[in-house]
């Protein structure tokens, strides 16, 4: 097969097929278009202001520690064990291999906000890419979670007392991010999840543009006012102070289930009813340290437990 | 059968009988291959189909099966699915996206560098 020529510069050998457009482009043109697109995403939505103190949210072990050295940036590590008293291994041994994604996802999200509050930053950026967001759109549609459907495509989310969060890679395909890291010799590790090896996405195989199309559909979704009015108002968790649409936030609900030996209570209706039938949470239940939101610089001590 | 082809090669011990390749795993995929990122291995230029007269060049599809049978140490389901490479694993042929090189049908050549990068993560 003769080498294909770059569709942009018409000079160099094409080295990558862009999933977004199907274009075949060379390495240099790829760097240019990829960086320009992410840059435009950032500037068009005014993500950063001069003087912003920005934290990068990352999950993973060794690679993150290596990145810290490579980029000489301060690193704050928070473990599930430290925050919730449960390691992921311990959670999996309780709930099995099927439902542990729920625990990991909920615990990770809260850990990120808590870590950011400890550091006193203004803004958290995460590496969510177009593939991630398309998956979330589909998941929220299937669950009928219109509140999250509205939020999940926003490049930037900020509640009243939460730290601003943004996703500068919102329109960047995972494949291109990985290729970029490879060509630039950046240290990249996909943190393959060892607890749930079957969690994967395969939208792209069907039709690469499907990913962007799904994001656009998610953005264009309009919820009728009457339906909106029936949505629960955001409040703070009575036990830990984190934002929640119920009396207890999802992390506290899940943690209570774990602590009381009924891990399913936070996942299925039947599990929840069983837990409720056992009566209220005992006073000595282990809980998450109280979250005082973005204004706090450091959360060191465990305040008195708030009765549920 | 691919396996037959390798046996013949080893028996003949002809240097010209194998293409030496450099295979690399990254993005976490190396964990399935003895935690070694870089592997050197030889493949026969031609492999046999159902009959001895039915031959085709050793291609990436052959390489994927060969790696599974000879180098993969654990969790095959993270590398292959339904008899082919698991979706979400990127393949580069001498640093070029394999989608530009005929994907699985790319005929391997002496000295080729084939890179497998996992982009898969849990939810």
TrEMBL record, chain A:
GO biological process: tRNA wobble position uridine thiolation
Keyword Zinc: no
Domain of life the protein comes from: Eukaryota
GO molecular function: transferase activity; tRNA binding
Example of a GO cellular component annotation carried by this entry: mitochondrion
Domain tRNA(Ile)-lysidine/2-thiocytidine synthase N-terminal positions: 105-191
A Pfam family recorded for this sequence: ATP_bind_3
InterPro entries assigned to the protein according to its UniProt record, in alphabetical order: CTU1_C, Rossmann-like_a/b/a_fold, TilS/TtcA_N, tRNA_thiolation_TtcA_Ctu1
Residue ranges of every copy of the Cytoplasmic tRNA 2-thiolation protein 1 C-terminal domain listed in the record: 235-264
Keywords assigned: Transferase
Entries under PANTHER family matching the protein: ATPASES OF THE PP SUPERFAMILY-RELATED, CYTOPLASMIC TRNA 2-THIOLATION PROTEIN 1
Name the UniProt record assigns to this protein: Cytoplasmic tRNA 2-thiolation protein 1
Organism in which the protein naturally occurs: Mycena metata
TrEMBL record, chain B:
Pathway noted in the entry: tRNA modification; 5-methoxycarbonylmethyl-2-thiouridine-tRNA biosynthesis
Superkingdom of origin organism: Eukaryota
InterPro entries xref list: Beta-grasp_dom_sf, Mopterin_synth/thiamin_S_b, Urm1
Posttranslational modification: C-terminal thiocarboxylation occurs in 2 steps, it is first acyl-adenylated (-COAMP) via the hesA/moeB/thiF part of UBA4, then thiocarboxylated (-COSH) via the rhodanese domain of UBA4.
Glycyl lysine isopeptide (Gly-Lys) (interchain with K-? in acceptor proteins) crosslink site(s): 123
GO biological process, one term: protein urmylation
Modified residues (1-thioglycine): 123
Entry keyword set: Cytoplasm, Isopeptide bond, Signal, tRNA processing, Ubl conjugation pathway
Subcellular location: Cytoplasm
Gene Ontology CC: one annotated term: cytosol
Signal peptide: 1-17
Transmembrane annotation, as ranges: none
Pfam families from the UniProt entry: Urm1
Recorded family membership: Belongs to the URM1 family.
Function description: Acts as a sulfur carrier required for 2-thiolation of mcm(5)S(2)U at tRNA wobble positions of cytosolic tRNA(Lys), tRNA(Glu) and tRNA(Gln). Serves as sulfur donor in tRNA 2-thiolation reaction by being thiocarboxylated (-COSH) at its C-terminus by the MOCS3 homolog UBA4. The sulfur is then transferred to tRNA to form 2-thiolation of mcm(5)S(2)U. Prior mcm(5) tRNA modification by the elongator complex is required for 2-thiolation. Also acts as a ubiquitin-like protein (UBL) that is covalently conjugated via an isopeptide bond to lysine residues of target proteins such as AHP1.
Protein name per its UniProtKB record: Ubiquitin-related modifier 1
Source species taxonomy: Eukaryota, Fungi, Dikarya, Basidiomycota, Agaricomycotina
Gene: URM1
């Amino acid at each position: 097969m003769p080498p294909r020529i770059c569709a942009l510069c018409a000079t160099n050998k094409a080295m990558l097929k862009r999933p977004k457009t199907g274009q075949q482009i060379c390495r240099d043109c790829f760097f240019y278009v990829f960086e320009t697109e992410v840059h435009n995403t950032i500037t068009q939505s005014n993500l950063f202001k001069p003087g912003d103190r920005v934290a990068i949210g990352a999950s993973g072990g060794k690679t993150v520690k290596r990145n810290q050295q490579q980029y000489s940036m301060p690193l704050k590590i928070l473990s599930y064990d430290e925050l919730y008293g449960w390691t992921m291994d311990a959670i999996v041994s309780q709930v099995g291999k099927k439902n542990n994604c729920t625990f990991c996802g909920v615990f990770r999200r809260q850990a990120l906000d808590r870590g950011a509050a400890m550091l006193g930053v203004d803004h958290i950026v995460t590496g969510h890419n177009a593939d991630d967001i398309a998956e979330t759109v589909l998941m929220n549609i299937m669950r009928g979670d219109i509140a999250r459907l509205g939020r999940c495509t926003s490049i930037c989310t900020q509640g009243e007392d939460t730290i601003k969060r943004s996703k500068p890679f919102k329109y960047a395909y995972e494949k291109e991010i990985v290729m970029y890291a490879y060509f630039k010799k950046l240290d990249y590790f996909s943190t393959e999840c060892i607890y749930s090896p079957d969690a994967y996405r395969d939208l792209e195989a069907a039709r690469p543009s499907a990913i962007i199309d799904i994001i656009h559909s998610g953005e264009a979704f309009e919820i009728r006012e009457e339906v909106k009015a029936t949505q629960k108002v955001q409040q703070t968790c009575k036990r830990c102070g984190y934002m929640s649409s119920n009396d207890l936030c999802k992390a506290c609900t899940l943690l209570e289930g774990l602590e009381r030996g009924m891990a399913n209570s936070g996942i299925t209706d039947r599990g929840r009813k069983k837990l409720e039938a056992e009566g209220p949470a005992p006073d000595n239940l282990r809980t998450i340290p109280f979250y005082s939101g973005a204004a706090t610089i450091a959360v060191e001590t465990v305040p008195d437990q708030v009765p549920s | 059968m691919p396996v037959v082809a390798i046996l013949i090669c080893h028996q003949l011990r002809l240097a010209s009988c194998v293409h030496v390749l450099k295979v690399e795993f990254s993005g976490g995929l190396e964990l399935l291959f003895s935690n070694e990122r870089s592997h050197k291995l030889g493949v026969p230029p031609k492999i046999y189909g159902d009959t001895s007269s039915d031959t085709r060049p050793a291609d990436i599809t052959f390489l994927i099966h060969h790696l599974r049978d000879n180098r993969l140490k654990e969790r095959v389901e993270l590398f292959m699915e339904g008899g082919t490479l698991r979706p979400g694993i990127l393949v580069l042929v001498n640093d070029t996206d394999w989608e530009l090189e005929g994907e699985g049908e790319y005929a391997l050549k002496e000295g080729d560098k084939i890179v497998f990068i996992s982009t898969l993560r849990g939810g």
